[in-house]
Amino acid sequence: MVGVVTDQGRHSPLSPPEAADLVLDFVNTRPIDGREERLADAPAAARWLRAAGLAREGTLVTEADAAAARELRQALVTVLLAHAGEHAGGGPGDGGPGGGTALEEAEAHLRRSGALYPLSPVVTAHDVRLVPAQEGVPGAFGGLLAAVSELARGGIWARVKACRNPPCHLGFYDRTRNCSAAYCSPKRCGAQVAMRSYRSRRAADPADAARE
Length: 212
Hints:
ABATE_dom_sf; Zinc finger CGNR domain-containing protein; Jann2411-like fold; Znf_CGNR; globular
């Protein structure tokens, strides 16, 4: 069970806590770099939720639940792209409208999810945890939102990002001291973006290309 704790000194901000690992595992269920879609259907979603410790063996997962998981994932990916400084274009691979609209829609979806999958505070003398108020798949989705809440309370939610390289959008944890990372790998994705930008400038200015 994922909880939100008041003791925020347990983790260095440069080291990802378990809550970050859970959120990143979830957003990286997408078919990235040729990997399979791990929320493709009800059986696949059930396997992932059980492996993540969010659902018990035998928890009923429907096709509607799998679709809801993919929608929740997409909303989180859009927010993580915003953390990385991505403010243009629609969500990854959706071909939708760009700009702030995609982020606003994602945030609205997450607000609706918060109402659908509420959390309850568990108060002890040592800490306060937010735990899912429901069982089954709603409780599993609530566990993901509890992880997000823990990261926000710890002041490190902005460090959980998605790579700005459009073919990638891999979720990653920003370990830089100034929280400035925009790509999962500067040598790979950062270099790819720089090369595309260079080629675009050359195409836009043939005279400049000729001088080279």
